[in-house]
Amino acid sequence: MDKIYLNKLEFYGYHGLFPEENKLGQRFYVDLVLELSLQKAGKTDDMVDSINYGTVFQLTKEIVEGQPKNLIEAVADEIATQLLSAFEKLFACTVKVYKPDPPIAGHYKSVAVEIYRENSK
């Protein structure tokens, strides 16, 4: 399967278990891997045969910057669900959501979850 990668999309959201996270918000990063056939798009050079990256970015932004969730697991799942629903050409997607500044004592670059979902159509 061919793949489209969107790397380190950056957003500001209000997800987390603690009231401070929901009030102050923080940065979130998202990596996406979209699996679909790009054979036709490669031959026709026509956007209708692929997936518009800007539309993918906007959909992801609306979720990450939208309604707060307790868990980044839920954020990742909603992104995957919405992408698979919005793009009929999409066979599967991998969504990785990074939370670089969680309220955890210690030294680390970030925490993250990664999920893989396939289209059930």
From TrEMBL:
Transmembrane segments: none
Keyword Glycosyltransferase: no
Keyword terms of this UniProt record: Folate biosynthesis, Lyase
InterPro entries in the cross-refs: Dihydroneopterin_aldolase, FolB_dom, GTP-CH-I_C/QueF
Protein name: 7,8-dihydroneopterin aldolase
Catalytic activity: 7,8-dihydroneopterin = 6-hydroxymethyl-7,8-dihydropterin + glycolaldehyde
Name of the gene this protein is made from: folB
GO CC annotations, alphabetized: cytoplasm
Function: Catalyzes the conversion of 7,8-dihydroneopterin to 6-hydroxymethyl-7,8-dihydropterin.
Keyword Lyase appears in the UniProt entry: yes
EC nos: 4.1.2.25
Gene Ontology terms: biological process: folic acid biosynthetic process; tetrahydrofolate biosynthetic process
GO molecular-function term, one example from the UniProt record: dihydroneopterin aldolase activity
Pathway: Cofactor biosynthesis; tetrahydrofolate biosynthesis; 2-amino-4-hydroxy-6-hydroxymethyl-7,8-dihydropteridine diphosphate from 7,8-dihydroneopterin triphosphate: step 3/4
SMART domains: FolB (SM00905)
Residue ranges annotated for the Dihydroneopterin aldolase/epimerase domain, each copy included: 4-117
